[in-house]
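=== Given protein ===
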Amino acid sequence: MKVIIPMAGFGKRLRPHTFSRPKPLINVAGEPMLKHVLDSLDGLKIDEYIFIVGYLGDQIENYVRETYKVKATFVEQKEMIGQAHAIYLTREHLDGPAIVLFADTLFEADLTIINTTDADGIAFVREVEDPRRFGVVELDSTGRVTRFIEKPSSMENRNAVIGLYYLRDSAHMLRAIEQQMARKAMTKNEYFIADAFQIMIEDGAVFRSQPVTSWLDCGTAETVLETNRYLLDHGHDNSSQFTHPGVMIIPPVNIHLTAKIVNSIIGPHTTVAADCHIEHSIIRNTIIDSGAEVVHSLLDQSLIGRDASVGGRYRILNVGDESSIGFT
């Protein structure tokens, strides 16, 4: 089985951080987003991972090759015209069953259904209050998908697709994408994969839905912090490993053991990465990435990039890599 992971976007909603690194490498609860994504597939027999990269894709390739001993292929998407187009670029590497998993999709689910299903495809879903900014599925009484709808105008179908799909035959998906592109079936000038799956259904493919227990988004600074809070509350707290005189730790937190913290209060829901220096500060609900320095500051709901420097009075900050901010 192959895993296709599209991640060629610019991550514009996470700027300034994504000016200097791709979104999947943003630190959440002590690890890059991408590590959480890949680790969620533990237990499945994966033959090859196919990463679709774009801007700063070399950073993705370096990270994967340094961190994982897996068969990995990297395909560049130079033209940003949609998900289906990105997946079609991998056609030379696809055969047999495949998983499509988008890189900002963090989830908790039982994936063993992939090993037992008789369906042609599975769309993993989560019920949402307002489905209009998502792709959704319309279901019949048996749970079979009758229609994929990208960004619906109505509220009636609340089962949002989370960006995780299983295909029993990847060749069928590729044929559907070819038809989609031949028809120029686009939504807002992009080829969405939901439209290709709808073509598969029209051709007789059976898709079923499978709910997930949690779905975490990492598309904006606000949702990154929400995901950080969730992960710290669910298994990523290492507060018991960190004891320093003059430092108060309020769990849950994730603090790298190389971080230097002096006369400060850290937490709750705070991630501090490797080689950070924090002094005379109070920090909560914040992610501070590697090598950053925070001195004489009170931070809440903040993202501080790698090797950034922050000093001064209370602020809510979204500071990119290698930046410097001071308040007098």
In short: The longest strand covers residues 159-167.
